[in-house]
């Protein structure tokens, strides 16, 4: 499967962006999906995740209440709606898909369970 992320750009603090991640090669509903980000000089970190049918979502504390993950399996697309953006949200954002069938959603906070990665899309937030 291939993942293609898009929608990044430059915005001012307080603005919004919506990222998309299109999966090709297999039915998107087969994958638990996550979003990660990597700021310059920092390790990649978990942003959020969404279950196969979209019923369950989880978020990092740093984005909770500002970011929303959703998915449209009919379109093989996962979204990351980012509101109230802050300069510290500046990073390359990656979508990822996992084949892992874990019962504990905490598993999906870690990169290791993800099998497929998109190429990343840059988000820059200016103050």
The ordered string of helix (H) and strand (E) elements is EEEEEEEEEEE
| N-end to C-end Cα span | 37 Å
Helix content bin: under 10%
Number of helices: 0
Number of strands: 11
Structural class: mainly beta
Rg over C-alpha atoms, rounded to the nearest angstrom? 13 Å
Q: What would your notes on this structure say?
A:
By secondary structure, the chain is mainly β. 0% of the residues lie in helices and 48% in strands.
Layout of helices and strands:
Elements: E1 2-6, E2 9-12, E3 17-24, E4 32-38, E5 45-50, E6 57-59, E7 67-72, E8 77-82, E9 91-98, E10 116-117, E11 121-126
Brief characterization of the structure:
With 127 residues, this protein is an all-beta fold. The protein has strands spanning 2-6, 9-12, 17-24, 32-38, 45-50, 57-59, 67-72, 77-82, 91-98, 116-117, 121-126.
């Amino acid at each position: 499967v291939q993942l293609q992320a898009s929608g990044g750009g430059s915005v001012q603090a307080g603005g919004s962006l919506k990222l998309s991640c299109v999966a090709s090669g297999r039915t998107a509903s087969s994958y638990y999906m996550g979003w990660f980000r990597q700021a310059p000089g920092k390790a990649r970190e978990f942003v959020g995740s969404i279950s196969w049918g979209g019923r369950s979502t989880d978020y990092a504390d740093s984005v909770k209440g500002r970011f929303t993950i959703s998915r449209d399996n009919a379109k093989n697309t996962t979204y990351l709606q980012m509101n109230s953006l802050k300069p510290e949200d500046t990073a390359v954002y990656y979508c990822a898909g996992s084949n892992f069938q874990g019962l504990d959603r905490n598993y999906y906070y870690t990169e290791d369970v993800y099998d497929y990665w998109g190429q990343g899309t840059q988000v820059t937030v200016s103050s």
